Amino acid sequence: MPANETVLYRGARFELGRGPGFYGIWPAGAPRPPSIEWWPETPEGWQGAWSRFTALETPGAFAAVSSPGAFAAVSSPGAMAPIGPPAPGGPPSTAVAIPRARAVVAAALLAVGVGCGIAGLFPGYLGGASLAQQPAQLVTHAIFLAVWTASALLILRGGALVRVGALLGLGTSIVTFGLFFADAGTAIGGAHVIGAGLVLGLIGWLACAAGSATAVRFRRSELLGGRGGRDRGRIVTLGLATAAALGTAAAFAPSWDSYTLRTAGGAAQSLTAGNAFANPAPVIAGNVAVMVALVAVAAAAAWWRPVRLGAVLLAGALIPMAAEAVSALVQLGEATSPVQFGISRAEAAQAGLTISSGLTPVFWIYCAFVLALAATCAWMLFWPRRAAPAADRAPVGPLSPSLG
After folding, report:
1. C-beta of residue 171 within 8 angstroms of C-beta of residue 301
2. What are the beta bridge partners of residue 259?
3. Measuring CA to CA, which of 19, 133, 397, 401 is 20 to 30 A from 353?
4. 38 in helix, strand or coil?
């Protein structure tokens, strides 16, 4: 037997074991042939391997192999957990966890970040106005803070929820980096003076990003999936998520806001605003970072195993993009000042100028792509529960007749 492979359970005809990054089933006996069926080294992969093994063997005709190398995968490299007898109706546990102290540190960083974010809602943000005075901006930041708060609470709950909270917060942190950078770029470009609210917001983002990253435990077999890259379901998910993310990113750049200016004499003029590339270079860089981050996170989430954890990562990235759409709808209900068009209030009153606001067709296309991305996220979240346990296995070459 190769030194890097271990038999976990042995039956009358087959053996179930694990190797680097996979679980495998092979015919019992010596010399042992290469594994004929294998699954990625994930909780779902173990579920599929165990179900297949018990289907091939006669109930009660197999037993655990008492070996120092018989271990199930856990989160910490080098911290392996012995595999005991299977629970009734299911396989041995493959729970993933991080040290409690690390989880507490992660939650504390998130709490500090949320506290700074809340404090940053009230001082001047850009140009003297605070976020609390701008409903459209306030709602987006409130959504970010709510996600990071949920992330901290999930991490503190412990167990499997640690990874859920960590990936949720991480997805939001990655995408919002570009949004905060674009705000800072407005001040860097000289359009506005940076305020204490923006400084606190940046500190809050940094703390939340650090907290989320601290609680994440990356495992090569989950992100890269080893041989699981041939899984058709994974490729389909990757295509759907990437296509929806690319559409969302493309529709994020053009102008969303449309304005119609009418004078008392009946003259009218239509304008659009909000093009991501009609800004100073630092702001453009921030907007591009948002688009690139969204597509990258969507691709990584679709490739992640278990796929449900990938769905959580994708949800974290999706929420800020949905918040941008909510912000645009909130702004639609606000009064539009003529000052933003270079017209004083006195001149507007003298000319009988009225301004009506709306949204361009591109905004509704953006919303459609966001909904498509949300549907993909939901499919990733619930699809594994409907799939057969052995759906994650990937055969290596032709199946042996004895396994058919």
Report:
1. yes
2. 271, 357
3. 133
4. strand
